[in-house]
Known about the structure:
The chain is of the alpha/beta class. The chain contains nine helices and eight strands. It has a single domain, classed as Lambda Exonuclease, Chain A. The strands form two sheets. A five-stranded mixed β-sheet has the order 2-5-6-7-8. A three-stranded mixed β-sheet has the order 1-4-3. The mean pLDDT is about 90. It binds iron/sulfur cluster (SF4).
Amino acid sequence: MSQENWAKDTADGIHVGFEHMPTPIKEHLLKSLQNRINIKNVYHVTEILYCPRKAYLARMHPNDIKMHVSSSWHIYRGSTFDALWSSLFDVNQKTYKVEREGKTLTGTLDFVWLDEEKYEKVLYDLKMPKNVYYRKKEGAGKIYSEQVQCYLAMAHENEELLDVHRCRVMFLADDLVIAEVPMNDKILDYVFDRIFELSDALETKDSSKLEGPTMAWECKVPYCMAPAWYREECAKCPKYPL
Length: 242
Ligand code: SF4
């Protein structure tokens, strides 16, 4: 930030915005997110459920994506609390793998606990969004529901958690929302279809047939930090949402 802009932003002595964060913290946040290594033919639940074009970009041109510090903070906060709170439960942070036709899906559940009223086991996924305004109205929403459904389906495919038939997403921000999500063991068929499409694109180095995201907000900054040259390609893709 130039001295001129800094002076303008802080004329009243109040500094608002992630760009004002001290650089060592900013660098720590950004560095802490560089741990995930993408392995050929191994796909994470989270990358598969969001925009396939974004997943392609992250694998083919990782250096072209400049993560926004606000996104880094939200991911960092979520994973820190995942690690701290999940360990309070007997079943926590279990990673499952499912393989089909040479492609592997991997994902890690947060924890299993009870519906304390019915005394039934439930698989929980913890989310820490900016706020819970829409979660109170709409529940978990499509992608968060699919994510927790995947973890339970993957556990079942591995012959584990066979006594668990319910999922919940717990959202914590300015309030707490717990959304019920029905179990869906068929979700893996949908996910593997997406994996096969993505892996075809990666093998041919051609993303033109990949669809855009199911939710239009996914294209917005800071949710997607695709560079301008790639966004031009996205605008020609099937089902570009904007
Ligand atoms: S701009 Fe939209 S379509 Fe393109 S990669 Fe980002 S989320 Fe996907």
